[in-house]
Amino acid sequence: MERPAPVAVPLGQAEVFQALQRLHMTVFSQSVSPCGKFLAAGNNYGQIAIFSLSAALSSEAKEESKKPVVTFQAHDGPVYSMVSTDRHLLSAGDGEVKAWLWAEILKKGCKEMWRRQPPYRTSLEVPEINALLLVPKENSLILAGGDCQLHTMDLETGTFTRALRGHTDYIHCLALRERSPEVLSGGEDGAVRLWDLRTAKEAQTIEVYKHEECSRPHNGRWIGCLATDSDWMVCGGGPALTLWHLRSSTPTTIFPIRAPQKHVTFYQDLVLTAAGNSCRVDVFTNLGYRAFSLSF
Amino acid sequence: MSSESSKKRKPKVIRSDGAPAEGKRNRSDTEQEGKYYSEEAEVDLRDPGRDYELYKYTCQELQRLMAEIQDLKSRGGKDVAIEIEERRIQSCVHFMTLKKLNRLAHIRLKKGRDQTHEAKQKVDAYHLQLQNLLYEVMHLQKEITKCLEFKSKHEEIDLVSLEEFYKEAPPDISKAEVTMGDPHQQTLARLDWELEQRKRLAEKYRECLSNKEKILKEIEVKKEYLSSLQPRLNSIMQASLPVQEYLFMPFDQAHKQYETARHLPPPLYVLFVQATAYGQACDKTLSVAIEGSVDEAKALFKPPDDSQDDESDSDAEEEQTTKRRRPTLGVQLDDKRKEMLKRHPLSVMVDLKCKDESVLHLTFYYLMNLNILTVKAKVTTATELITPISAGDLLSPDSVLSCLYPGDHGKKTPNPANQYQFDKVGILTLRDYVLDLGHPYLWVQKLGGLHFPKETSLPSHSSLGAHHMETTMKLLKTRVQSRLALHKQFASLEHGIVPVTSDCQYLFPAKVVSRLVKWVTVAHEDYMELHFTKDIVEAGLAGDTNLYYMALIERGTAKLQAAVVLNPGYSSIPPIFQLCLNWKGEKTNSNDDNIRAMESEVNVCYKELCGPRPGHQLLTNQLQRLCVLLDVYLETESHDDSVEGPKEFPQEKMCLRLFRGPSRMKPFKYNHPQGFFSHR
């Protein structure tokens, strides 16, 4: 994809700063609105931008359609994960979860509906929340992050019900296996753990780095992203992005992406992934083919 | 015979009445006394009618006698002679009668004539009298009319009106009782009064004249006094010059400057006025002077007839030379170019003194044909500067003022009309001549009040008159000071020491192991060729007005190359670093997130590294931070299980967590004063 040629604009202090910010920006999270027309993306400066997907994907898409409709400062720290309920956008970053109303989010000066912080053990440093997961059957939200635990929060009451421990290092990502209500979590320790929500216990552990086909020791063993389709699971990070068959716990397809993945989502038959280190969100219409990118 | 006698007789008749002599010639004397036959008296007695009858009868008789004689003569005969004789005597008698009658007739005629003559004479005399009288009458009439028309001079005088007269005139003149009734007297009285008044006024007039003379004389005296004052004042002024200098009030000097300033071209004059005003009002350290030759400036405005003569001469000369030998086109073009780029002989020099005794000397020139202002800059410091190799361009006159305002690189002429002028003489761009002529920055044009339409529709930076001068001066001072600060820092950097001032020490941990090994300048083209700078180039941040450097930081086997883009607007615009780490492979921001994070720490989070105002420590702080980041990076690198051997860099830094977030960042943020590293 071509970038437009640099314009010789005389750069004042503000323009230089903006350009530098953009060069060093990382988009950590994204979420699609319940109506499917908008995409929310969160970056490392704590900002959330709302893009109009319908405009960007339409046949008359221009450069301006790829710019955000609205951008606002959501968190102090980076927005590591976002998820959408049918009315709310939930975003999490440095230690707390905030909820935004989708209906109001396009207006300027939008304020969060509520914010919650799970009970942490350490108080020296506020651990980040790396992953959010909605469990629609229970109407609850699962948070996981820097304190190596999975917390469950009831969305109606806002209380924290469970804390699942087992990871030895901080958790990167979560995925929900719908049929048997199980949660998969991948962490820095290199293991993908499956948790049974009813029993609140660890069901299965896959240590990805131990498999030779996908392990990349020079990258480390950490699992950066996880997505599951009940029978199948995609995970990647230090090891290569691999498609696993969960029953047999065997890797089946390895995706040819060099850089470690940050985020991956199954969406119908698309795989949306933020690959590489840039301010862009890549969209794959077929597995392995990058169609276009949305940029901040 | 009868006529002769009547002629002779006439004088006699006139002379004396009644003294004619009948039939006797010249015998009047003798016959006067005695008896004389007066035929005149006879005339009175006879009747003219009867005389006429007699005449007719006589004539008939004569005719009859003649006829008879004739007859007798024709018949002839002897007795005829007697008959003829008889008849002849009869006819003689008749002849005598006739003669008498003739005489009588003559006398009658004469008498009649005389009478008529007399009467005529009388009539003439009367006529003459009448005419005389008429003439006199006419004359008298004229005189009368003249008299009647006579206007006395007194009527031409505008006399005061009657009421006024009676009011004002003193009673001995107005004599009311007399004059009221008698208009003649009244007029006389009025005239008298008029005369009185006129006499009085004439008196006054003479007095006033003499007064005026006196006053004029006084004025003359005073004028002389004043004119003698002028040279004395001058001498006082001269004498007071030392006093002025002593008291730092150089009025004389300022006055002289204003005199010279009158010959400045308008843009330079505006600049001069603004600079002087600013200097007096806001900044006492600013000094303004005018340099150049005033005579040459005056010569520019000589009347055109001189130059026309010269032109015609030179034209004739030119024609001659072209006939003999064509001067080369190059020489002609060169001359034309020189003419086009001619400078006005006067220039304005502004000296800006900064706090540390360094001075920025700015000389402003005006290019007359191009109608733009240019400036040449020079920086002098209190102490002699030893220029480090990498600092060559920092204070060079060519680039020290580049991009004072964003985009104002001063290499292109701001006046769009110049392009057409350049085309005529084959100048491509002003860039080739800026070293000689000075840079035509946009802020200089604005200081001189010259406004040109911009080629691209960019939002213009607001600059209103006085504000602009102030902003520009402040920017200039900051620029000089930042450049001098960099100068000093470069000197230290070239020796491998990152000079961190004591008030910035808190930004860094006490122990920093990585060292700066190399600091060199890099050419713009070389920077563009580097493989790890593509992002910056594509973002349009690496233009040709920037300065480029390469720093090398080492620790053990790890070598960190940092390519630095130094914007002319340092330190409000931060330097931009791009890193390439050579340690266990080559890591740049495209393949290692942590390198990207390190770049972000110095590029994006630069505000905390600015240090105390005015922030000239930014570059050195950034370099120091890079050293710290390299330390952290190397020490927190996770040990690769597949490779044997101990870690090259044992962890010495205190970190709470080694990795955080989905991007697994290293803890690059240093916390003061606790001294540990954490994540942003």
Automatic annotation (TrEMBL), chain A:
Keywords: Repeat, WD repeat
PANTHER family, alphabetized: THO COMPLEX SUBUNIT 6 HOMOLOG
GO CC entries: THO complex; transcription export complex
Family annotation (PROSITE patterns): WD_REPEATS_1 (PS00678), WD_REPEATS_2 (PS50082), WD_REPEATS_REGION (PS50294)
GO biological process: mRNA export from nucleus
Keyword flag rRNA processing: no
Protein family membership: Belongs to the WD repeat THOC6 family.
InterPro entries referenced in this protein's UniProt entry, alphabetically: THOC6, WD40/YVTN_repeat-like_dom_sf, WD40_repeat_CS, WD40_repeat_dom_sf, WD40_rpt
Keyword Cell membrane in record: no
Protein name: THO complex subunit 6
Repeat positions for WD: 164-205
Phylogenetic lineage: Eukaryota, Metazoa, Chordata, Craniata, Vertebrata
TrEMBL record, chain B:
Localization, UniProt: Nucleus
Biased composition (Acidic residues): 306-319
InterPro entries registered for this protein in UniProt: THO_Thoc5
Keyword list, A-Z: Nucleus
Predominant place of localization: nucleus
One Pfam entry name: FmiP_Thoc5
Family that this chain belongs to: Belongs to the THOC5 family.
Name the record gives this protein: THO complex subunit 5
Originating species: Chinchilla lanigera (Long-tailed chinchilla)
GN (gene name): THOC5
